[in-house]
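Q: Sequence in, structure out?
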Amino acid sequence: MLNSGIRTSKSFSLGFAFLFASAAALAQTAEPAAQAASAAVAAAAMNPYGLEALWASSDVVTKTVLLMLVVMSIGSWYIMVVKVLEQSKMGKQAEEAQAFWTAKTVAEGTKALAEDSPYRFMADAANNAVKKHEGLMGHIPVNDWVSMGLQRAVDRIQGNTQGGLAFLATVGSTSPFVGLFGTVWGIYHALTAIGISGQASIDKVAGPVGEALIMTAIGLAVAVPAVLAYNWLVRRNKAVMDQVRAFSSDLHAVVLGTIKG
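A: Exactly. Output:
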C-alpha cells in the first residue's frame, strides 16, 4: 500500500509538473500575440495620419476649410432629400388633378384640388384672370389675358421647382477648389515645418503632405454627389414641368370655351 501510494504521489507530481510546463509554454506563446495586439490597438488609437490628427494639428484656416466642406455636404444632402420629396408630391398631385376634368365647372373642379397643389394654383389664376378682365384690362383680348395669367402661374411654379438647385450647382463647382485650397495651405505649412526642423526624411514628409491631400479628397467627395444630384433633379423637374404645362394648355382652352359658351 505504501509503495502504491508513493507511485500514485509520483504520478500526481509528474502530472502537475507537466501541466505547469504546458501552462508556462502557452503563456510564453500567448505573450507575444498579446503584445502585438496591444501594439496594434495603440497604433490605431494614435494614428498620426488620420482625420483626427489633421484636425488636432491644423490651424484656423484649415479648420475653416473643413467646416465649409462639412456645411456644403450637409446642405447638399438636405436639398437632395427635400427636392426628391417635393417632386414625388407633385407627381401624385398631377395624378389627382385628372379629377379636375370630370367637374361640371372650372370653379367646382378647382375646389376638388388640394390647397397646396400647383394645379389648384393655376386654376385659381385662370379664375382670377376671368374675374379681373374689366376696366383697362378689358381692352386686352380675353384669350391673351387668360394666357398671360396662366403663364405667370406656370413661371412661378417653375421658379419654386428650381429652388435649391443653384446651391447644388455652386457646391459641385466650388467644393473641389475649396479642398484644393486646403491642400495647398496644408502643404505650405508642412514644408515650412520641415524647413524649420531641418529634417526631410520620408516619415517627416509623408505625414503632413498626406494630411494635406485629404482636403482635396474631401472636396471631391462633396462635389461628386452634388453634381450627380443636380443633373438628376433637373431631369426630374423637366418631367414635372411638362405635366404642368400640359395642364395649363388644357385649362386655357377650357376657360376660353366656358367664357364663349
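The helical segments are 2-45, 51-57, 60-96, 106-111, 118-131, 142-161, 165-197, 202-260.
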